[in-house]
């Protein structure tokens, strides 16, 4: 089963994403802050991470720097829409 880590500081959004992905057959874990996300990434293996940028504890960009060498696919989920934010995310 594919394991997905959902990292979003807005619990309602994280829960909604988890509910939909779980209904589609994915195994999901949802966390609400950057430090907890880092703890989960160290403790478990994930096939995909859905990552918000603006998080308490550690930003999505900070987390991305940590997981880049792990070669885990990441999709940013964010309300940021500035060109510089998009470029930084890439």
Number of helices: 4
Rounded to the nearest angstrom, the radius of gyration is 12 Å
Helix content: 40-55%
Can you write the helix and strand succession as a string? EHEHEHEH
Note poorly predicted spans: 85-90
- Number of beta-strand segments: 4
Major sheet characteristics: 4 strands, parallel
Attribute tags:
4 strands, 90 residues, disordered C terminus, alpha/beta, 19% strand, four-stranded parallel β-sheet
What does this structure look like?
This protein is an alpha/beta fold and 90 residues long. The protein has four helices and four strands, in the order βαβαβαβα. The protein has helices spanning 11-23, 34-43, 60-67, 83-89, and strands at 3-7, 27-31, 48-51, 74-76. It has a four-stranded parallel sheet, with helices on both faces. Strand 3, helix 3 (60-67) and strand 4 (74-76) form a beta-alpha-beta unit. Helix 2 (34-43) packs parallel to helix 3 (60-67). It is globular and about 30 Å long. The N and C termini lie far apart (27 Å).
